[in-house]
């Protein structure tokens, strides 16, 4: 299962923990509910709506690619750089 890890301050952690507790949720469930709030539910979409949502997602990315604003690093390059940065701490 994929895992997401972010660095936050102790104060931010306590705030998230408190907000999650107030909602009766785990921190994970609270963060996911907040982060994914704007995501369309593909189950309730018509084919036309799903295609439009996909177009809305991809159009800005295509514009960036056409303008040459692309990352040429591979996933392995990115992982390697992250490990180097981590080892410098």
UniProtKB/TrEMBL annotation:
InterPro entries: ParD (IPR022789), ParD_sf (IPR038296). Gene3D superfamilies: Antitoxin ParD. This is Antitoxin ParD. It comes from Rubrimonas cliftonensis. The lineage of its organism: Bacteria, Pseudomonadati, Pseudomonadota, Alphaproteobacteria, Rhodobacterales.
């Amino acid at each position: 299962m994929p895992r997401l890890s972010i660095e936050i301050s102790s104060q931010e952690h306590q705030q998230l923990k408190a907000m999650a507790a107030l909602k009766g949720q785990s921190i994970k469930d609270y963060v996911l509910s907040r982060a994914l709030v704007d995501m369309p539910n593909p189950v309730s979409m018509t084919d036309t709506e799903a295609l439009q949502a996909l177009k809305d997602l991809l159009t800005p990315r295509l514009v960036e690619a056409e303008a040459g604003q692309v990352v040429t690093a591979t996933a392995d390059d990115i992982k390697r750089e992250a490990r180097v940065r981590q080892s410098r701490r």
